[in-house]
User: Which sequence fits this backbone?
């Protein structure tokens, strides 16, 4: 019979090492998860804005030599700016959730008000930084487009030649083939037999019958006298 776990365990073991649950006071705090999601959204927006500014600077430096490529890169950077804006919107929703949790249970708020104030200040700073970065990126893209339009920037040649388009052969439609197909085999092979037919014999040519000796007599006598 198998023994129970508490019988197999040593006497000095109290089982605290296996208890990985959170404490009751931490589980009761409903504002912990929203504020963690809030900081994750803010960190993601910081990364996206920094990445967009670095890429925009590199695109502006190569705009004189490769304006078309710079314009395409700035389009992708604008998508990063929009993604950072969505992250800030998510952070704003988490801010409202934290505020609601604190207002619902102020006794178990703990350090939540101070954390909420710091997160709000950080969000305000990030919103201003995002607005300035978005304006800079959009203005740079517009300058590149205006330069290409008025001839200040000369578009570069494509690195890859335009691929040659080869039309694929169109197969014969099966319905049209069946309509044109002859039902009788003789009718289908008649043109082929007609092409293979030998030259017809002349109508005046007559072949004499074979003689008893096995050789046919000549058509014309050898001696006319």
Assistant:
């Amino acid at each position: 019979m198998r023994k129970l776990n508490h019988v197999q365990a040593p006497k000095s073991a109290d089982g605290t090492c296996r208890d990985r649950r959170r404490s009751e006071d931490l589980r009761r705090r409903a504002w912990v998860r929203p504020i963690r999601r809030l900081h994750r959204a803010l960190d993601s927006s910081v990364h996206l804005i920094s990445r967009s500014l670095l890429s925009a600077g590199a695109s502006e430096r190569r705009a004189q030599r490769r304006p078309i490529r710079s314009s395409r890169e700035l389009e992708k950077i604008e998508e990063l700016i929009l993604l950072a804006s969505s992250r800030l919107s998510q952070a704003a929703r988490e801010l409202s959730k934290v505020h609601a949790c604190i207002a619902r249970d102020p006794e178990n708020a703990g350090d939540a008000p101070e954390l909420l104030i710091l997160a709000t200040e950080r969000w305000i700073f990030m919103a201003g930084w995002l607005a300035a970065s978005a304006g800079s990126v959009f203005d740079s893209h517009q300058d590149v487009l205006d330069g290409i339009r008025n001839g200040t920037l000369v578009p570069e040649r494509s690195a890859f030649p335009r691929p040659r388009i080869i039309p694929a052969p169109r197969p014969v439609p099966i319905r049209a083939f069946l309509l044109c197909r002859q039902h009788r085999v003789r009718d289908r092979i008649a043109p082929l037999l007609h092409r293979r037919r030998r030259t017809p014999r002349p109508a005046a040519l007559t072949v004499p019958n074979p003689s008893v000796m096995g050789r046919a007599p000549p058509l014309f006598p050898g001696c006319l006298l």
User: Anything to note?
Assistant: Residues 1-7 have pLDDT under 50 and may be disordered. The radius of gyration is 46 Å.
